[in-house]
Structure formats: C-alpha cells, structure tokens
Write a structure and sequence with these properties.
Blueprint: H1 4-15, H2 23-41, H3 65-78, H4 87-99, H5 117-130, H6 134-144, H7 147-152, H8 170-193, H9 208-218, H10 222-245, H11 248-251, H12 256-262, H13 271-274, H14 277-285, H15 290-301, H16 305-324, H17 338-357, E1 359-360, H18 379-382, H19 397-402, E2 409-411, H20 422-427, H21 430-438, H22 456-485, E3 492-497, H23 502-516, E4 524-529, H24 539-552, E5 560-563, E6 568-571, H25 579-594, H26 605-611, H27 621-624, H28 626-638, H29 643-647, E7 652-656, E8 662-666, H30 681-695, H31 698-712, H32 717-720, H33 723-731, H34 738-744, E9 746-748, H35 756-767, H36 770-781, E10 797-800, E11 810-812, E12 817-820, H37 826-839
Parallel strand pairs: 3-4, 9-10, 10-12
Antiparallel strand pairs: 1-2, 5-6, 7-8, 11-12
Helix pairs in contact: 1-2, 1-10, 2-3, 3-10, 6-10, 10-14, 14-17, 15-17, 16-17, 21-22, 23-25, 24-25, 25-31, 26-33, 36-37
C-alpha cells in the first residue's frame, strides 16, 4: 500500500517554496510524487522496462522505503521520466485498492473521521445489536491506519457528543454538528486566552483514561485485534518517513498522541505484533526528536510501576524475540539489526521513566573541577587519533533533556537488573561495539550508548578494551619520544619498592610521576619487589596492591576509622596524615581498575557515589553509620511527642578526634542556642548528614578523588557504570562459587579432570571452610575475591609438578596457575596444601 500521509506532508513541504496557485496544483504534485514512489518500489510491471528510475528495470538497484521516498522527491523536482503502468500491474493495484479492508469505498459511519470514547461505544452498540462487527473493524482499521485521524482521536478537549452516529436521525446530526462547532470554537478561544497558564510540557492532549477504557472493550474481540495489527503495519512506515523527512513533530507536537495511543495497547507484546507491526513501530518511535522522547518518558513516569513495567517488558520481549530468531557473527552484527537497535532506543525511554517515577535526588552534586582548555595540539591529535583518546563520551541527549542521570536515582521503580537483556549480551561483539562507541558514534549504533541493557560483565569487557588501547597508545608514544630524544624507551609504569617501606617508596615514585608526566599513569603497571626475582605478569601487581592497602588501612596509622558493626572503613576527619597519602589511596583504586586487579577494600557505597559525582545525604548514613547515627536520626524524624522537650537537642553536635577526645561543632552559627523542634528537625538531620559525609572529610576526600581521577578521568567508567557496579569492579564479589570454578578449570602436564589426584583435590577444596577457601584463592590468584561474573570467569590452571614428593604446591598468580605434585594419598595432599596456603608469601624463581 502507498504511504498516503507521508505524501500529503511531502507535497505540503514542496509547495511551500512556490506560489500556491490552486488546490488542483497541489493535488497534481501529490499524485506525481505517489507515482514516482510506486515506480521506485513496485515498478511499472513491464519486464522489458528500460527506465533507470523504475523497479521493473533489470539494472535497477532496490531501495528501501526511506531511500525511495527521498528519491521520489528528487525525481519530482527534475521532472524525471514516468512509466505508464503495465496492464497486469494496473489491474493488480486496482484490485488491491478495491479489496482493502482498511479503506473501503463505501461503509456505515463514513462520516467518522476520528474516534472518541462515545463514538466507539455507539458503534459497538450498533454492532452488538446486529451481531456483526464488520463496521467496527472497518472504522478501527481506517482510523488506526491514519496518522491525522489518530492525532485527533481521544482528545481531552473533545466536546461531548459532537456527533450523533445514528443515521436514522439526520436532523439531530445537523444540530449536534452545529453545537460541536460552537463548542470547539469556545474551547479554542479559551486555549488562546490561557496560553500563559499552559499545562506541564510533558502533558499530552490525549485522554488516557478514555483510551484505556476503549482498549479494554476492543481487545476482547479477536476480529478487532487483527484489524489493529494490520492498521499498525500500514501506519508505521508513513510515520517513519514523516518523522525522518518532514519534521512533523516540530510542526505539530500533538503528533506524539499517536505513540501515546498505540502504546496503551496492552497486547503489543503478543506474537501477532512481534514479527512486523511492533518492529516497524519501534523504528518510527526511534525517529522521534529528543524533546518528544523526553515528554513521553515524563508522561510514563507518572503512570506508575505497572504501566512502565509493561512498556519495559514489551520492548525487552521484542529484543529477545529478534535476537533468538536470527544468527549473528563477525560479519552480521547485532548492531546492524534495525529492530534490536530501535527497540533498545525505545527501552531507554522506559528506563528513564522508571528513574523519574522513583526516588530521585538531582541536587547534592559534587563540584567537578574542569581542566583549562589548551590551544596546543597533543601528539594524539597530530597522529590523527584524537577520537580514540578523547576525554570521554558526551552525556546522553535524553539524559540532558530530562535533567536526570542514573546516579541521581535513589530507588527506581523497576530494578536496574530488569533492564539487562541476557540474550543480547550473549551476541554483542564488544570489540566492534567499542569501536563504534569511540570512533563511529555518528554512523554506527553502539550498545554502550544504552549501558542499562548491558550486564556488568559485558560493560567490563568494553572498559577492558578502552584501558588496553590507552596502554598501547602510551607505549607507542613512549617509543616515538625515545626515538626523537635518543633515550631508552620505558613502555611501562615501573614501580620498584621495598616490602618494609612500601608506602614511602610507592608514594614518592607515584607523586613524582603525577607531577612530571601524569600520562605515564596510563601505562601498564609493572611492579618489582627489591631483592625478589618475580617477574610481574600480573601477580606481583596484585601483591603490591594488597600490601599497600594493608598498610594504609591499618587503624594505627589513623587515615581511616573502622566500624566494628559494619566492618567498613570511613575517612578519619581528624587524621594527621597529609593529603598526598589520600591521593595515593585514590591512585591505587584507579590503577587497580585500569590494570584489571581486584582489591580488598571495604568502603560504604556512599564513597563510590561521591566518586561518581554525588554528595552524601541522610539516606547514605544507613550504610556508612547505620547502628548509632542513622538510627538516632531516624527516631528523631519519627518522634510523635514534643521534640524540643523530649529530645533536648540543639544544632551543636559532638564527635571524637583521633585520640578519642570529644569535639563540639556548631552545625549553624551559635548552634548551641538553637533547639531542635518539630519544625526544624528535618533541617537538622539534613545538615548533620551533610557534615558527617561531606564537610567534615572534604579535605581528605578531595585528595582521594584527585588520585582516582588521575587514572580514570578519560575513561568511560562514569558513563557506563553505576556506583554499585564500580564497587564490584574494584572489590570483586564476596560470593565464592567453587562449583563454577571447578567446571571452568583447565589442566596441564598430564592431569585431566578424571585424574585421581584431581578428584582428591576438589573433594579437599569443597571440604574447606570459608576462610580456608579464601586463603586458597589468595594463594593461587593473588586475591581472595571473585572477579566480575564470579569464579567461573577465572580460568584457573592446575599443572602437574612432578611425582610424589614432600615439596609444597606452588603457584603463578600472574596466570592463576597452581603447580601441584602428584601426592600419593589424599591426606598428604590436604596437609601439604593447607601448609602452602597458610604460610606462603613472597615471590621467587623456580
């Protein structure tokens, strides 16, 4: 069928640039453009056609609807050759038009050009009386296949009973039309007078309640369901063309009504829609301008959990259905699947609606320090590589339009995990997706532009590629500099430290690098312990990180305070250490992420929220100071008696210093003179939380964040990951699944999974307690945490290291390799293994 509404708008757009002599001229132009479009898509039907602009020509290269529409405009402007339809083709087209259910030539209720709830009720009553729903089916098909008709349907400002649809009373029709015209004129005048008091921009003119009631009645009829599917199939190509070429939303913002009405259909996820109708609809929706998508997201956010979840599940089902129905490989990428891409972009609207509809804090943001702009060209720019190493991805346009970020969300309506599509994560090629994300963002779609749909494991792969490419880049630049300057190249970030002076050595070296050449921090880390022969292939770095953290978090140093109840550390506001020490801690965390190492750090979640740009607030105290402070403030807020008399509190608070001495602090000027009352208790709680989490540790945290950003500022970390995911990247998972580790372990040197020693080994490991299992993991891999994705992602190797002997097992933590002698019995294996994991420390050459 010909996308009629598209050509109506096309003619209007073309004719605006020439004098409008008559209505006949516009009709002629419309007809010609239609003929060009048919000629480009269907052809003339003549198998021997020689017109290069006709689909029937043998040399013609097929065009999709979008390209054909644009070409039809060009051909119209240059008055290109038009073929006369071949007789067989003409007969076929005429038959299609005459037999189409969607636009019958003659029908009951032919004067209905849009729908209202009353109209539908009248038609339904008419059909129920006769036991024949053909009239309803034709009208639903006609209205739902026409964008202009849908825009006018179910309006909030629709006058009551504008039309009487009983054809047996023509006098009433005339009277009602007159009343309707007067009512519409009055409504229009009222709107003109009230322009300064308009509704919220996210509001639409659709009566949502009426639409839902109508759908409840229509979807109970199978025949009407089929008409809705067919109408949507006919409507959506026209909408896609309208939005892409004619900017219809800018001309008429009520164009959004179409999407609002269609998406209220609760059956969109059913198989009838999934194959053709819904994919086409999503492609049209993805063409909406950002302002329209933001209106839609705000609108949905007010509808509540049930509605947003239905939208989310509809788009998720389409993505899953499409992915499992197709095969993707290195040549055929899921990034090129228009249906999956469009549905993902639509899912983004539901994602932000879930955030807006939940608890959000768009305030309380940490101040971001902006680097001064430099006019000097960097070496990356001179080499033409600036796109690969630009500072980071721009903010998401929809995010900017809505003025909300995922990190602003305290609690979304729908858990983040529900937006992750596992089927998609299994087929996305992250190396290629990363290239699209960093280099070809204007021409290729990257799923990293919609990170909510990706799992932490998948996003971590993208971060890994980003980090490795930066390391490779710094290595190249070092080689180039050394060639120019005639110096020995130094492609690594080398740290040579003494075990008993590890903090001093690391601090001096890293501080020197950060001042002289901070780009060296982007090189691959290479650690050497003085007097030890271990070569750093990853394991020595892990040991370095562990020792540094053990030293820094030692309570005797006093940089951090430890909470026995939560087992978490917090910045000590009374610490005597200088800021360089805190900068070192931030550097260590950044280097760990950059070098893909897991650290044994224990911070509350508010630390990661602050690193991502949010200040701490009262709710964060439930994690950082839950037992005493949070519970006390919560009781204060919930107290039902006389707050001033019962609590006897003021705006002066007390806390202890490094030596346990009490310190008094006024939250407000002369705070000791301001009692806490029912009227100001909320202010007291907010101010108290701000002091504890922000102001009291501002010096320490600023230095800590500075060190962290020295390594990660140009990384997509902040764009891709939420605070809880950043914690997982740094700390790994505390959950240890040794069953998964056993399934993925590989064997070498003559061992296999069926070897007796291997069976004894796994029986021994599974019999260990939690602490012994962590010691084994530390001994074999250099950390007692599981990586992102669990122990199944570890790829441990167990290799044979000789026959029965008294030697202990050894390990290569760089490669997660355990060298295990073939002990004579299970008891000896257990005894030797326990001794190795309990007492072994340090590196040596075997």
């Amino acid at each position: 069928m010909i996308p009629e509404p598209f050509f109506q708008r096309t003619v209007h757009r073309v004719c605006r640039s020439v004098p409008e002599s008559s209505r006949m001229n516009r009709a002629t132009a419309k007809h010609l453009i239609e003929r060009y479009f048919r000629q480009l898509t269907d052809g003339c039907g003549n198998g021997d056609c020689t017109n290069e602009f006709c689909a029937s020509c043998r040399d013609f290269r097929p065009l999709d609807n979008n390209a054909a529409a644009a070409k039809a405009l060009e051909l119209f402007k240059i008055n290109a050759k038009l073929c006369n339809p071949h007789p067989s083709k003409k007969d076929f087209l005429d038959g299609m038009m005459s037999e189409a259910d969607i636009c019958p030539a003659k029908e009951d209720f032919s004067d209905v050009n849009h729908l209202t709830e009353d109209t539908v009720s009248t038609i339904l009553g008419f059909c129920e009386e006769r036991g024949d729903y053909s009239a309803l089916i034709r009208i639903v098909g006609r209205i739902f296949s026409n964008s202009d008709a849908l825009i006018k349907s179910f309006r909030k400002d629709e006058p009551i009973a504008t039309e009487n649809l009983d054809s047996s009373e023509p006098t009433d029709v005339d009277e009602q039309e007159k009343q309707g015209s007067e009512s519409m004129a009055a409504s229009s005048a009222a709107l003109d007078e009230g322009l300064d008091e308009m509704m919220d921009p996210c509001e639409v003119t659709v009566d949502i309640g009426a639409v839902r009631r109508v759908y409840d009645r229509l979807l109970s009829l199978d025949q009407v369901e089929a008409a809705l599917v067919n109408a949507l199939i006919y409507l959506t190509p026209n909408m896609e063309l309208d939005l892409e070429y004619l900017d219809v939303y800018e001309t008429n913002p009520d164009y959004l009504n179409i999407f609002v009405i269609v998406l209220e259909n609760s059956n969109l996820h059913s198989p009838e829609y999934l194959e053709v109708a819904l994919p086409q609809f999503c492609k049209a929706m993805s063409k909406l301008p950002v302002a329209a998508l933001a209106r839609l997201s705000k609108l949905w956010s007010g509808y509540g959990l049930g509605h947003i979840r239905r939208m989310m599940e509809t788009f998720q089902q389409l993505i899953t259905f499409t992915v499992v129905s197709n095969e993707y490989d290195g040549e055929t990428l899921v990034n090129d699947d228009g249906t999956v891409v469009a549905a993902t972009q639509c899912l983004k609207v539901a994602f932000y609606a879930s955030i807006l509809g939940g608890d959000v804090d768009v305030e309380h943001n940490e101040e971001e320090e902006e680097d001064p702009e430099s006019d000097e060209l960097t070496l990356h720019e001179l080499l033409g590589e600036e796109r690969l190493y630009k500072k980071g991805p721009p903010a998401d346009p929809l995010e900017q339009e809505l003025g909300v970020r995922p990190v602003d969300s305290i609690r979304p309506l729908i858990p983040y995990e529900d937006f992750v599509n596992e089927s998609l994560n299994e087929v996305v090629e992250m190396d290629k997706d990363f290239t699209f994300f960093k280099v070809n963002a204007e021409t290729k779609f990257s799923f990293q532009s919609c990170p909510f749909i990706l799992s932490v494991i998948t996003k971590n792969q993208g971060l890994y590629y980003d980090n490795r490419i930066r390391m490779y880049s710094e290595r190249r630049l070092t080689a180039l500099y050394s060639m120019v300057q005639g110096q020995q190249p130094n492609p690594y970030l080398k740290l040579k430290v003494r075990r008993d002076h590890i903090i001093d050595d690391a601090l001096v070296r890293l501080e020197m690098i950060s001042m002289e050449n901070p780009s060296d921090l982007k090189k691959q880390l290479f650690v050497e312990f003085e007097g030890e022969q271990g070569v750093d292939e990853g394991g020595v770095s892990k040991e370095f990180f562990q020792l540094v953290l053990e030293e820094i978090f030692n309570p005797d140093i006093g940089m951090f305070s430890y909470d026995d109840d939560t087992k978490l550390f917090w910045f000590n506001s009374s610490s005597l250490e200088n800021e360089a020490q805190y900068t070192l801690v931030g550097l260590v965390l950044g280097l760990a992420i950059y070098n893909n190492c897991i650290l044994d750090v224990h911070f509350p979640m508010v630390v990661y929220r602050k690193l991502m740009g949010k200040k701490g607030n009262y709710l964060d105290l439930s994690d950082s100071h839950p037992v005493h402070l949070y519970q006390s403030l919560k009781k204060l807020l919930e107290h039902v008696g006389n707050v001033e008399d019962d609590m006897m509190l003021t705006f002066q608070i007390s806390h202890t210093d490094l030596f346990g001495n009490p310190i008094l602090y006024d939250l407000k000027e002369q705070g000791d003179q301001i009692p806490i009352t029912e009227g100001n208790r909320q202010e007291f709680v907010v101010t108290y939380a701000d002091y504890m989490l922000n102001r009291s540790v501002e010096r320490q945290f600023r230095a800590f964040k500075k060190g962290f950003l020295m390594v990660t500022k140009e990384s997509p970390l902040k764009y891709l990951f939420r605070p809880e995911e950043v914690e997982l990247l740094i700390c790994g998972s505390r959950k240890l699944d040794f069953e998964a580790l056993e399934k993925t372990t590989e064997y070498d040197g003559g061992y296999s999974k069926d070897s007796q020693i291997i069976r004894d080994f796994w029986e021994t490991i599974h019999s260990f307690g939690e602490e012994q299992k962590r010691l084994f993991l530390q001994f074999t891999t250099g950390t007692d945490r599981a990586p992102v994705g669990g122990l199944g992602k570890l790829k441990m190797i167990i290799a044979k290291n000789g026959s029965d002997t008294d030697r202990l097992p050894t390990s290569h933590t760089c490669f997660n390799a355990l060298l295990l002698p073939e002990y004579a019995c299970k008891d000896k294996l257990r005894e030797r293994l326990l001794k190795a994991i309990t007492y072994a420390k340090g590196f040596g050459m075997l």
